[in-house]
Backbone:
C-alpha cells in the first residue's frame, strides 16, 4: 500500500505501470485519475491545502478499511496539493485484486471518501476572483451508500 500526498505533478501511466510491475497474483486493476476541471472556462488555478501528517494518516486509515472490506492485493492513493492548473492530474486511486468486483468496489469507495471526507481544502481562482470550494450534496450522498 502506498499513500502519497505531494506537490509535484505525476504521470498516471507511469504510476499504474509501477503499481502492477511483477505482480502475478492479481487478476484485476482499477484506476481512477482526477483532473482539475474548468467547467466555466475561467479557472486560472486551484490551490489545495492540507495538514501534513494528518492527511496521510486519514487516507491510510480509509485505505486500510478498504483492504479489510474487500480482498485487495494492493492500494495506491496519490493526491496533490499546492497550485494546480486546469487539465493537471489532481489525484489517483488504484486498487488491485484477484477479481474485478473487489477492485471496482474498493476504488469507488476510496474515491467517494477522498471527494467528501479527506482533509483537503480547495480554493479556486478565476475571472470572478477567489472562492473556496464547498462540499456538494451529491458527494455526501455517494458516501452514504458505504
Residues:
Amino acid at each position: 500500500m502506498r499513500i502519497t500526498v505531494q506537490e509535484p505533478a505525476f504521470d498516471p501511466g507511469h504510476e499504474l505501470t509501477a503499481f502492477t510491475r511483477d505482480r502475478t497474483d492479481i487478476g484485476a486493476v482499477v484506476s481512477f485519475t482526477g483532473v482539475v476541471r474548468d467547467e466555466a472556462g475561467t479557472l486560472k488555478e486551484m490551490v489545495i491545502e492540507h495538514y501534513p501528517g494528518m492527511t496521510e494518516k486519514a487516507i491510510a486509515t480509509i485505505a486500510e478499511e478498504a483492504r479489510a472490506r474487500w480482498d485487495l492485493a494492493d492500494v495506491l492513493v496519490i493526491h496533490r496539493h499546492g497550485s494546480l492548473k486546469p487539465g493537471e492530474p489532481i489525484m489517483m486511486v488504484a486498487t488491485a485484486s484477484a477479481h474485478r468486483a473487489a477492485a471496482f468496489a474498493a476504488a469507488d469507495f476510496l474515491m467517494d471518501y477522498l471527494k467528501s471526507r479527506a482533509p483537503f481544502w480547495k480554493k479556486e481562482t478565476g475571472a470572478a476572483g477567489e472562492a473556496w470550494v464547498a462540499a456538494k450534496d451529491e458527494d455526501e450522498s455517494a458516501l452514504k451508500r458505504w
User: Anything to note?
Assistant: The chain has a mean pLDDT of 95.
